[in-house]
UniProtKB/TrEMBL annotation:
InterPro entries in alphabetical order: GntR_C, TF_FadR/GntR_C, Tscrpt_reg_HTH_GntR, WH-like_DNA-bd_sf, WH_DNA-bd_sf
SMART domains: FCD (SM00895), HTH_GNTR (SM00345)
Listed name of the protein: GntR family transcriptional regulator
UniProt keyword list: DNA-binding, Transcription, Transcription regulation
Any single Pfam family the record assigns to this protein: GntR
Entries under Gene3D superfamilies matching the protein: GntR ligand-binding domain-like, Winged helix-like DNA-binding domain superfamily/Winged helix DNA-binding domain
Source taxonomy: Bacteria, Pseudomonadati, Pseudomonadota, Alphaproteobacteria, Hyphomicrobiales
């Protein structure tokens, strides 16, 4: 009689998935800084999770490009760089423009309503960010990512959506490390030049996202694609300014 394949008990599976989710969240949000060691003893104490689920989570983080394994040094949070961010932004442009064109062709009234609701949340988060950037960055990033996800949600390609999600996670990690929490990287200052601050203020404003929403809801695929590409280039300009000032 053929035996049934072994499955992981429910509680053990929850611990494994919980360890992965906790580590991924803190790496993406910059709580665990680029280059920071991922030692089992420290992680177990930090998250209250046993060694086994953590040991299982680390290779999965490496597969996602969020951690690296070095000989004799163990796992560390993957590094970031402006060069890699530029590569990610170009990949984002290719993937998101393909998705938004299909979303515009396929989207229905429910999709349109979700876009308007996510834009409202982003507008509120942008206003809060102006008042207190140090405390509201994470909330703004959540709202920003949700807005872009809503624009693309009606597209049909599961593979492209998966790529977009991975790119989005990596971009969020780079944004945190290079722009919002640069002091977490050795040798970097948290101060921004006036030109960079002006560019950053424009990038974080709601107006560009409103224009993008209007183009998508008007089913103007050509304008929406152009605005997405413009959005990417504007973001790159912010980081090129940061790199020039340091």
């Amino acid at each position: 009689m053929k035996s049934e394949p072994e499955t992981m008990p429910g509680r053990e599976l929850q611990e494994h998935e919980g360890a992965l989710a906790a580590l991924k969240r803190d790496i993406v949000d910059g709580v665990l800084a680029p280059g920071e060691p991922l030692r089992l003893m420290a992680l177990s104490k930090r998250y209250g999770i046993g060694y086994t689920p953590l040991r299982e989570a680390l290779p999965r983080l490496e597969e996602a490009g969020l951690a690296v394994l070095s000989p004799n040094r163990g796992y560390r949070v993957a590094s970031v760089s402006v060069a890699e961010l530029e590569d990610l932004e170009q990949a984002r442009s290719v993937v998101e423009t393909a998705l938004v064109k299909d979303a515009i062709a396929q989207g229905d009234l429910e999709w349109e309503s979700a876009i308007v609701a996510s834009h409202h949340r982003l507008s509120c988060a942008s206003a809060a960010l102006v008042r207190d950037r140090s405390r509201e960055v994470a909330t703004w990033m959540d709202a920003h990512d949700a807005f872009h996800q809503s624009l693309l949600s009606a597209a049909r390609s599961g593979w492209l959506k998966s790529f977009q999600q991975q790119i989005s996670e990596q971009l969020r990690r780079h944004h945190q490390a290079l722009l919002f929490l640069p002091e977490n990287i050795a040798g970097r200052s948290s101060e921004q030049g006036e030109a960079t601050e002006a560019l950053l203020g424009e990038a974080l404003s709601i107006s560009n996202h409103t224009r993008l929403m209007d183009a998508v809801l008007a089913r103007d695929a050509e304008q929406a694609v152009g605005l997405l590409r413009e959005h990417v280039q504007f973001t790159l300009a912010v980081y090129q300014s940061v790199s020039h000032n340091r």
